[in-house]
Write a structure and sequence with these properties.
With 474 residues, the chain is α/β, with parallel strands linked by helices. It folds into four domains: 118 residues, Rossmann fold, CATH 3.40.50; 168 residues, Rossmann fold (3-Layer(aba) Sandwich), CATH 3.40.50; 75 residues, Helicase, Ruva Protein, domain 3 (Orthogonal Bundle); 69 residues, no CATH class. A five-stranded parallel beta sheet has the order 2-1-3-6-7, sandwiched between helices. A five-stranded parallel beta sheet has the order 11-14-17-10-18. Strands 4-5 form a two-stranded antiparallel sheet. 35% of the residues are buried. Bound molecules: adenosine-5'-triphosphate and magnesium ion.
């Protein structure tokens, strides 16, 4: 029989956990303090440790250092905080299961059922909801989604463009108690400054010229469901103030209304930017950032989970085949070309390359040399800040996407075509002129890809647009 030790100083909570644990066929012992726990450990080493962190005589984490006494049980942490302390998230043996208090009996039963199946020995799932990938970083993402989906907590998804942030948001919704209600996605970058308030909160008939009927905003459209605020850093600053107020108060008003409505939505926000840097640059309000950053999920770039490329390619080719009515698969050795590429555009870039190869192929297989040719034409990888950002946290301003010198980004004399990797400036020009020439050269270097140029320059996309506008180029 599997033995569980429940370390919890709240006697009622401990009784509930012990009852459920015994009901699942485990033997259970309880301890209300670190001292008690050490006593229990010396009697019998547990296979499963259910650990509260705040104990009357210290922090539950201290027990985990006591390897000799503890053995190697599976650990489930029970805490009221939505986030595990970094030392737990970064444990060599993987982050422990996290039960966020208050949790239901059903949630505990689900966690115990997972434990019974032996998570350490189980084959990692190759997909979860809409997401495909068996790599360790994706397992962490699946685990985080599983933990937070049943709650009402706000989730903040970060990751480079094309890493699957929207799929994570949709998977979260599908796994949440709100799944039967709408999932409404808003691209905050596309909100017009004049109509943003009405788009978010709606307006009453006659509230402004042209408002000829009542219009429900996205907060109303998503009532009971999930509101996905995509590209949150691109929301106009005045709207950020209003959004914060709604998130704090839980209610909002249509434009032109006199009474408030309840904001019954679970908010999931996403950004492909380093949010700490966005705050430092003043494009994201710090108070809004803290309000959103309740439960962060950081998506790994594809180049840090190359072992998933084969699975993803097969999945994406399946999708393309279904859509076009003709199936094509990767030919022998074709995977090698894909695995060697750095994928600055992540899964979206992979999907686009496969689509191109699909169109250019005649037979049932995509040939390796065709893929290699297509990939040679792609822009080089950025080696961006996400490689270095600690999981589940934000990179600090200092660790953010600062440019590699242009000269480092490409292979000398390689596939760069017309792009010149060096920029020489004559002495005697102004700083503003040097600035303009650097911005323009970086854009050329990235084939006019503005997101990549902004990342290399270490400025926001918005700042880049402002510069271009001031040069009369956009
Ligand atoms: N893990 C995954 N499994 C299957 N498909 C994926 C996965 N990740 C991304 N995709 C696919 O890649 C494309 C881009 O994904 P998505 O739109 O979710 O990315 P994103 O992170 O929101 O990008 P952006 O920041 O540019 O908005 C979509 O077609 C999506 O279906
Ligand atoms: Mg997206």
């Amino acid at each position: 029989m599997t033995h569980a030790l429940i370390v919890e100083d709240d006697a009622e909570a401990a009784r509930m956990v012990a009852a459920v644990t015994s009901g699942e066929g485990l033997s259970a012992a309880c301890a209300g303090s670190l001292l008690d726990a050490r006593r229990q450990l010396s009697l019998q080493a547990p296979d499963l440790l259910l650990l509260d962190l705040q104990l009357p005589d210290g922090n539950g984490l201290d027990l985990l250092d006591d390897r000799e006494l503890l053995g190697r049980p599976e650990v489930m942490v029970m805490s009221a905080s939505a986030q595990l302390p970094p030392v737990l998230r970064n444990r060599a043996e993987g982050a422990p299961v996290h039960l966020v208090k208050p949790f239901s009996q059903a949630q505990l039963q689900a966690a115990l059922a997972h434990h019974r199946k032996g998570p350490r020995d189980a084959v990692p799932p190759e997909r979860f909801g809409l997401l495909v990938g068996a790599s360790a970083p994706m397992q962490t993402v699946y685990h985080e989604i599983m933990q937070v989906a049943p709650t009402q907590f706000t989730v903040l998804i970060s990751g480079e463009s094309g890493t699957g942030k929207e799929l994570v948001a949709r998977t979260l919704h599908a796994r949440s108690p709100r799944r039967a209600r709408p999932f409404v996605a808003v691209n905050c970058g596309a909100l017009s400054p004049h109509l943003a308030e009405s788009e978010l909160f709606g307006h009453e008939r006659g509230s402004f010229t042209g408002a000829d009927r009542l219009h429900p905003g996205v907060f109303e459209q998503a009532a009971g469901g999930t509101l996905f605020l995509d590209e949150i850093t691109e929301m106009p600053l005045p709207m950020q103030v209003k959004l914060l107020r709604v998130l704090e108060s839980g209610s909002f008003m249509r434009v032109g209304a006199t009474s408030t409505l309840e904001a019954d939505v679970r908010v999931v926000a996403a950004s492909n930017r380093d949010l700490a840097q966005a705050v430092a640059e003043g494009v994201l309000r710090e108070d809004l950032f803290w309000r959103l950053d309740v439960f962060p999920i950081a998506l790994p770039p594809l180049r840090l989970r190359r072992e998933d490329i084969g699975l993803l390619a097969a999945h994406l080719l399946d999708q393309i085949g279904q859509q076009e009515g003709v199936r094509r698969v990767l030919g022998a050795h074709a995977l090698g070309a894909l695995v060697d590429h750095d994928w600055p555009g992540n899964v979206r870039e992979l999907r686009n390359v496969l689509k191109r190869a699909w169109v250019l192929s005649q037979g049932p297989c995509l040939a390796p040399d065709l893929l290699a040719t297509l990939l040679r034409r792609m822009p080089p990888a950025q080696g961006g800040s996400w490689d270095r950002a600690p999981r589940g946290t934000l990179a600090t301003g200092a660790a953010s996407a600062v440019a590699a010198p242009l000269s480092d980004a490409g292979t000398p004399g390689g596939e760069r075509g017309q792009t010149n990797n060096w920029l020489s400036l004559p002495l005697g020009i102004s700083l503003a002129e040097a600035d303009r020439r650097l911005v323009e050269a970086t854009l050329r270097h990235h084939g006019q890809h503005r997101e990549q140029a902004a990342a290399t320059l270490g400025i926001s996309l918005k700042t880049l647009y402002n510069r271009l506008r001031s040069y009369g180029a956009a």
